[in-house]
Amino acid sequence: MDSIISVRDLAKVYDNGFAALSGARLEIEEGEILALLGPNGAGKTTLISIICGLVTPTDGQVTVGGHDVVQDWRRARSLIGLVPQEVALEPFEKVINTVRFSRGLFGRPADPARIEQVLRQLSLWEKRNEKIMSLSGGMKRRVLIAKALAHDPQILFLDEPTAGVDVELRKEMWEVVRGLQDAGVTILLTTHYIEEAEAMADRVAVINGGRILLVEEKAALMRRMGKRQMRIELGTPVDRLPESLAAYGLERADDGAALVYTYDTAADRTGITRLLNDIQAAGLVLHDVQTRQSSLEEIFVDLVKEAS
Amino acid sequence: MNWPAILAIYRYEMARTYRTLAQSVISPVISTSLYFVVFGAAIGSRIDSVEGVAYGAFIVPGLIMLTVITQGISNASFAIYFPKFIGTIYELLSAPVSFLEIVIGYVGAAATKSLLIGLIILGTATFFVEVQILHPVAMLVFLVLTCVSFSLFGFIIGIWAQNFEQLQLVPLLIITPLVFLGGSFYSISMLPPFWQTVTLFNPVVYLISGFRWSFYGTADVGIGLSLAMIALFLGLCLGATWWIFRTGWRIKS
Q: Are residues A25 and A81 in the same domain?
């Protein structure tokens, strides 16, 4: 697939001397959902802000749809819709007016049918004539998304879109975002909820200390970095491991009522069959066996720890 | 030029006026009417005519200037400060809108508002005193130039201000004294010679003098000088705005 956004060697040093980005590189492919993960202060918002024109880069280049964001800013910006992290809305304005305003600001002619479609898509149509201050937090976030979509952008930036949103609404928003992807919109998502990235993203980029540490397909990353663990619950607890099982690196859990075996799924042999045979040979009785895969969250924490 | 964007900003700002009609339009009209009652009718009836014009009528151009200057500044400064304060400025900065277009939208709306208020006050004045306008075209030119210049000045204050106190600071501490001492209520020839000289350093004197000339044909300073001064002020504001946007001062990091 072709890159719709291309970030090359991007650097940003703020006036106070803080280097938020140093040599960041990233290619975002058309039509994908890319999750940008990173701890606080990693440079996520600065990166998005530079692509959208809110912050001027110190060095490097960004193109959006082939247009340089500094030289050819007008074309670059008209392709992007931005949903900011903070809920920033004029409290006394009506929902529909603020969405209309956004469309106009992007130079698009008035289109009541399209505005209605966007508002309906986000379940805001019934609230269109209400003042923003009367809406709930979740509704306000939807208004931000509606504003970002009002000019039919090809790319949508969601900066922490579900921060402070309840679980039900979060899932609803994921549906909306998937719907947008189906309609051909490329989505860049930053999030603290790694569960969100796990649920939504096609690819994951990890940023820390102003650099992109890795960009990889989510599934491949989880396969590559993920470990599986098998938890073996025993009929009767053991005080210490039998000598014959020493080579497996087992951990005792629950005061010896369970044993935990960590293995690599990518390896040729996982060693599970041999382990189970040896457990039986050692005279231990199996009560139950469970396996689990490490989550994206654990992988992410490991990655960030490793890099620092 | 992104005309739909300019129009969107302009309409959005004008809609704010309709939404806050009492504050935006009715309150300046009421306060100006009070000036007419106090200075025009109560005190003015005991003052002789100034330069051949009845005192009540003499203060009309000054009062209009006083209002359009303060309204232009407060409308434009608030219009751009508020998005900065609540964070909605992100949308302006991430939209395909140039700074020039942003200025035209905001300053255009603020200038329109103050122009409308100025005309409403002129209309209100005719209920209290007999107003004549000898040079209507010049009157409109002065009025429009003043509205645009001070809206632009207000826009600069709105960009500069980092809190609500600063937003009020320049209008209260600088503009109000300058306008009051700029000959709104008197002819500078009524001052002692020393203060006449001091007054000539007040730019507002030139605006009010020129504007009053368009009504009654009398002026404290030459009409050419008045026009030159307002052009100079407009030029300075345009220069400052251009610099702000070129450097992104207090808007973009």
A: yes
